[in-house]
Amino acid sequence: MINVTKTFLPDQEKYLQYVREIWERGYLTNNGPLLQQLESELKDYLKVDHLYFCGNGTIVLQIAIKALEITGEVITTPFSYCATSNAILWEKCIPVFVDIDKDTFNIDPDLIEASITPATTAILATHVYGNPCDVEKIELIAKKHNLKVVYDAAHAFGVTYKKRSLLSYGDISTCSFHATKVFHTIEGGALISNHPELDEKLSLLRAFGHQGDESYHFAGINGKNSEFHAAMGLCNLPHVPEIIAARKEVFDTYDNQLNWDVLERPVKNKDIEYNYAYYPVVFSSEKVLKDVLEALRVQEIIPRRYFYPSLNTLPFMPGQISCPVSENISERVLCLPLYVGLPLTDVERISAIINSVLAP
C-alpha cells in the first residue's frame, strides 16, 4: 500500500542514545535540557530569535490567540485544516471567512478589508501547502486597522521568503511538528514571535501560567512537550536538507509525468525556497477526482482530499459565509503521495494511472 505520506525516521541508535541519557537523568519533561537544546538549534536553523517548542500544532494556535489578547471577530481562511478555525472557536472568538485567491489558494488579501468590522481584532491566515500568503498586503491592512496577525505556518517549516524564514512573519507564526510533516518531533509544534516582550508571557502560557511552586501569573494551559519528543527533533533536524531534497525529486517526477493539459495546481511564489511539503493537483470536476480516487484505491494507493471540505461549510461554523472559490477548489483538489523513500517508479505509476483516467 502507498499512503499519502510516510513518517521519516532517523537512525534508531541515535534516538536510543538520547533515550538512555533521559533515563540516566530522570528528567522527562518540564522544560528539560533536550527541549532547551532543540529550541536553540531550531532558532539557529530558522534564523529566528524567539521560538517556543510546544505539545502540538493546535495548542500553539490557541496560545497565540491568548497571548495577543485576540477577541471578537478573526478574519481567516476557509481553505485550511480544521485546527485553524477550531482554535478560533475554542478561544471564544468568531471566525469570519474570507475567500481565497484562485491561483495561490491562500486568503485573498483584496477581499479582507470588506469583512473588517468594529469587532475585528485579528487576521489568522494559513500559508497553504507552504506557499506564502501575501504577507506585505496583509501587514499593510493590519497596520491600517490596528489588527494582530497570526500565521498558521504548519506547512512552512524550512520555507524562506525573500531570503527570510516564512515563519518570521506576522505577530506570531505557529508551526506543526506532527509525524507527517517535513520536520517532525512525533507530536509537537512551535510558536515563533517577533515580539521580545512576549517572551515571558508565551513561556508561561504553555506551562499553566506559573513559575515554581508559588508564583502564579494568569490562567495558562499545558502546552509543554517532553524530552522524548525533543530527542526525536534533535535526531531529525540535521536531516532536513536531505529530506527536502528527496521530496523535491518526487515532486519533479510528478511535474514531468502528469498531464498538465487537463490538470491545475496552485501557483508557487517565485521568491521562495520551497520545502516540497505537499503535492496538490486540481481536477476539472469532483466527479473526475472521485474517478481518480477509485482507480488509485484499486491499486492500493491512498492520496488525500486536502483540504476538504471548505471550512466555511462546516455545520458548526457561525454565519455560514459563502466562499465560492474555496468551495469549488476544495471539491476538486487531491494531494498525491509524497515522502522520503517513495520509489520514483511508483511516482511514475501513480502518474500513469491518473493520466489514464484523464485521457479523452
Write the layout of secondary structure elements.
Elements: E1 2-3, H1 12-25, H2 33-46, E2 51-54, H3 59-67, E3 73-76, H4 82-90, E4 94-97, E5 120-126, H5 135-145, E6 148-152, E7 160-161, E8 164-165, E9 172-176, E10 189-193, H6 199-205, E11 210-211, E12 215-216, H7 227-236, H8 240-257, E13 272-273, E14 280-282, H9 286-298, E15 301-302, H10 324-332, E16 333-335, H11 344-358
Protein name: DegT/DnrJ/EryC1/StrS family aminotransferase
Family: Belongs to the DegT/DnrJ/EryC1 family.
GO molecular function: pyridoxal phosphate binding; transaminase activity
Explain how this protein is built.
With 360 residues, the chain is of the alpha/beta class. The protein folds into 2 domains: 2-238, 3-Layer(aba) Sandwich (Aspartate Aminotransferase, domain 2); 239-358, Alpha-Beta Complex (Aspartate Aminotransferase, domain 1). The chain is 36% helix and 15% strand. It contains 11 helices and 16 strands. It has a 7-stranded mixed beta sheet, sandwiched between helices. Helix 4 links the parallel strand 3 (73-76) and strand 4. Helix 8 (240-257) packs parallel to helix 11.
Briefly, what is this?
This protein is of the alpha/beta class.
Percent range for helical residues?
25-40%
Lateral arrangement of strands in the main beta sheet: 2-10-9-6-5-3-4
Low-confidence stretches: none
Question: What is the class of the largest domain in the CATH system?
Answer: Alpha Beta
CATH arch. level architecture of the largest domain: 3-Layer(aba) Sandwich
